[in-house]
Design a protein that fits this description.
The chain has 73 residues and is mainly α. The chain contains 2 helices and no strands. The chain has a domain of 34 residues.
């Protein structure tokens, strides 16, 4: 018999989100990340997206001073 899970029963319309929020806030960061990634993979498979093509998106911006021709540089 499993003992490593938590369960709450009731009618959906009578339940609030406090149980879910408390559960996930009690989980370590790695467990939350793993669960999130599992959902991402599932959503991609449902949409027919090749999960091997997934990668982090990177936006590139340049930060720094704009140099002016007339500023004496």
């Amino acid at each position: 018999m499993r003992t490593d899970f938590v369960e709450r029963r009731g009618r959906i319309e009578d339940l609030d989100r406090s149980f879910d929020l408390g559960f996930w806030q009690d989980q370590p960061a790695q467990a939350r990340f793993d669960a999130t990634w599992e959902l991402v993979l599932h959503a991609c498979k449902v949409k027919g997206i090749d999960v091997r093509q997934l990668r982090l998106q990177r936006d590139i911006e340049a930060y720094g001073r704009q140099h002016s021709k007339h500023a004496g540089y």
